[in-house]
Amino acid sequence: MFATLPLDVIPLLSIAAAMGLVYLPFGVVGYARARVGYDMSAPRALFDKLPPYAQRATWAHQNGFETFSFFTAAALIAYVTRPHLDPWYFGLRGDEAVAVLCAVFLVGRLFYSLAYMADIPIGRSLSYLAGSLATLGLLAISLLPLLEAGLA
Fold it and tell me: What DSSP element (H or E) covers 3?
């Protein structure tokens, strides 16, 4: 997917894709609301009437907002600092490492939402872990040069 894109724009495109992934579960919620009968005057009262998969989709949607802010910050820091890593970091240059970590986050979030809606707790947990580690990795490779230079 990202193979033909300039590596320096991948963090920005990943932020846009991550925002789309936040709303992926909400489509399932909308479908369930339409089937149950959505009451616009009391939208929160409808939650208990939703089937379990739609309730889990609601929680996945809400969690998407929580993780989106941290990923966005990490991706923007990576975009601004443009980390220049020696190839000994997993055999990747800095821009390649950023691209891989962004992709890991996006795939992790996709599987997180799917596992949450399908009620697969171990899949949800592992996907969450992958996304979180990718976010932390973005921060680490972005701030590492600053730490090495004694500027942080």
Answer: none
The model's confidence at residue 67, banded by pLDDT at 50, 70 and 90, is very high
Q: How far apart are alpha carbons 59 and 116 in whole angstroms?
A: 8
- In degrees, rounded to 5, the angle at the alpha carbon of residue 101 between the alpha carbons of residues 99 and 103 is 70
Section 113-127 average pLDDT? 97
**Nearby residues of 143 by Cβ (< 8 Å), 6 or more positions away:** 77, 81, 152
pTM: 0.87
Contacting residues for 67 by C-beta, under 8 A, at least 6 apart: 109, 128, 131, 132, 135
The pLDDT, as a whole number, for residue 87 is 59
Helix (H, G, I), strand (E, B) or coil at 5: coil
Helix intervals (H) in 41-120: 52-81, 94-117
Residue that the structure tokens 């939402």 belong to: 113
79 vs 11: CA distance, rounded Å: 6
Cβ atoms < 10 Å from Cβ of 20: 12
pLDDT in the model for residue 151: 62
